[in-house]
Inverse folding.
C-alpha cells in the first residue's frame, strides 16, 4: 500500500437503519463479533497513508458509538444532520488544515466488506481527477415498475449496457466537494455525493470494485453477510437442545401477570420456581449452553444457591451468550416453542422476539418463537403448568482438537 497519495476519510454513520430489522441501528449491529461500523473503520485504519478518519453519527447514538470504537485512534465524532448531505457537510467542515487539493474519501458505514485493494484503485484513479467512485456494471435486467391495485407490475425495460450501480467510498478533491455542498440545496434529493459534484458539471470517474462491497439494508443482507464471514473464517455450526417445565404455583392471591421469555404477560397465575421461573428463557439458556459444550443451567445457577432466589432469568441467558462470545462464537438462530393451554402467546410474539434478541444482542430475524397446546392432554393440557423446548445453532471456530482422534 506504499506510494499512495495521503487521504482523509469521512464515514457517514448517522442513519437509523429502520429497514434492517435490527433492534439497534444497523451500523451498530453485530456482524460476527464486531459491529458493522467497526468492520468499515478497521479497513481504513490499516492504511499508513490515512491523514484523518472522522465518523458522523446521530446525536442519540453516542453510547453505541463509544462502545463500537473503543481502542481505535479516531478524530472526535461529528454530529449528523437531518439529511445525508447535511451529515457529510458537517464532516467536511470538521477536517482541520485541509488544503483545496487534499483528497477526501466518503464512505457509508453499512458497507463492511470494503476491500483494501479497491481503496488503492480508487485513490490511484484520483491522480488526474477531481472526483471518482467505486461502482459496478449492472448485471440484472432493469425496469420501471408501475402499481396496479397496490401491486408492483413490470413496466418499461431499460438497457443495462451503460448502467452502473454506485458504491462507496467516493473520492473528491476537497475544494470540489466543499463547493458542491455549499452551492447546492439540502433538500434530501441527492442520495450520494457524486450527484452534487455532477451538478457542478464535473466529471466523475467510475472505478470498478467488488460485489462484496454491498450495503447492508434489509434483514436478508445481514444473512448474506454472515454467510460471507463464515466462509472465510473457519467456523463450524453446532446445535444445542433445551427443555424446561414449571408448574403453576398454588396461591390464594391472583397475580396480574406471568413472566415468560423476559416479558410480563397479563395472566392470573404465576409459575413456581427458584428464580423467576421463566420457562422460555430457561429452555433457551440450556440450548445455548449445550451448543457450546458448557453443561446446563443448573451447573451455572444451582437452585440450592440462595443468591439466585427470584433472579431474573434474562441474566442466565445473557451469561450463556457471554460464554459463547468468549469462545469466539456467534448465534446463527434460536427456535423456541412454548407448550401451554394458557396464556395465549400469539399476540405477544413480537414483543417476545424483540426481548430475546435484545438479551442475546442479535438481529430479530435470528429468533423464532411459536406456541402450541397438547390438545388438553397431559399436565399442560390440564393447565397445571407450562413446558418449553428450544433449539439453538451456534457458529464456533473450528478446533483441531475435534479431530485429534481421527485416523
Amino acid at each position: 500500500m506504499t506510494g499512495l497519495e495521503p487521504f482523509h476519510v469521512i464515514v457517514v454513520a448517522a442513519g437509523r437503519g429502520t429497514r434492517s430489522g435490527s433492534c439497534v441501528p444497523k451500523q451498530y449491529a453485530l456482524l460476527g463479533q464486531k459491529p458493522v461500523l467497526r468492520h468499515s473503520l478497521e479497513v481504513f485504519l490499516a492504511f499508513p497513508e490515512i491523514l484523518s478518519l472522522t465518523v458522523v453519527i446521530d446525536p442519540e447514538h453516542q453510547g453505541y458509538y463509544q462502545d463500537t470504537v473503543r481502542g481505535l485512534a479516531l478524530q472526535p465524532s461529528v454530529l449528523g444532520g437531518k439529511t445525508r448531505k447535511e451529515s457529510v457537510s458537517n464532516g467536511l467542515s470538521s477536517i482541520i488544515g485541509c488544503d483545496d487539493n487534499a483528497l477526501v474519501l466518503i464512505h457509508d458505514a453499512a458497507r463492511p466488506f470494503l476491500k483494501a485493494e479497491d481503496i488503492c484503485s480508487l485513490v490511484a484513479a484520483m491522480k488526474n481527477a477531481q472526483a471518482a467512485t467505486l461502482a459496478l456494471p449492472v448485471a440484472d435486467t432493469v425496469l420501471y415498475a408501475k402499481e396496479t391495485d397496490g401491486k408492483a407490475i413490470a413496466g418499461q425495460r431499460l438497457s443495462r449496457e451503460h448502467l452502473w450501480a454506485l458504491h462507496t467510498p467516493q473520492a473528491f478533491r476537497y475544494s470540489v466537494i466543499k463547493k458542491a455542498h455549499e452551492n447546492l440545496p439540502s433538500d434530501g434529493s441527492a442520495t450520494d455525493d457524486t450527484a452534487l459534484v455532477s451538478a457542478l458539471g464535473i466529471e466523475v470517474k467510475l472505478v470498478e470494485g467488488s460485489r462484496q462491497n454491498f450495503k447492508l439494508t434489509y434483514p436478508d443482507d445481514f444473512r448474506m453477510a454472515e454467510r460471507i464471514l463464515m466462509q472465510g473464517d473457519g467456523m463450524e455450526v453446532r446445535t444445542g437442545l433445551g427443555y424446561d417445565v414449571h408448574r403453576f404455583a398454588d396461591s390464594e392471591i391472583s397475580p396480574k401477570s406471568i413472566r415468560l421469555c423476559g416479558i410480563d404477560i397479563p395472566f392470573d397465575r404465576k409459575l413456581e420456581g427458584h428464580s423467576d421461573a421463566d420457562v422460555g428463557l430457561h429452555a433457551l439458556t440450556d440450548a445455548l449452553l449445550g451448543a457450546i459444550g458448557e453443561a446446563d443451567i443448573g451447573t451455572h445457577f444451582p437452585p440450592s444457591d440462595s443468591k439466585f432466589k427470584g433472579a431474573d432469568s434474562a441474566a442466565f441467558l445473557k451469561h450463556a451468550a457471554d460464554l459463547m462470545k468468549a469462545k469466539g462464537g456467534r448465534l446463527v438462530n434460536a427456535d423456541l416453542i412454548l407448550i401451554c393451554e394458557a396464556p395465549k402467546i400469539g399476540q405477544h410474539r413480537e414483543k417476545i422476539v424483540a426481548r430475546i434478541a435484545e438479551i442475546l444482542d442479535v438481529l430479530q430475524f435470528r429468533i423464532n418463537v411459536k406456541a402450541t397446546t397438547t390438545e388438553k392432554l397431559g399436565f399442560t393440557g390440564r393447565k397445571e403448568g407450562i413446558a418449553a423446548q428450544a433449539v439453538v445453532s451456534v457458529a464456533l471456530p473450528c478446533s483441531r482438537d475435534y479431530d485429534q482422534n481421527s485416523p
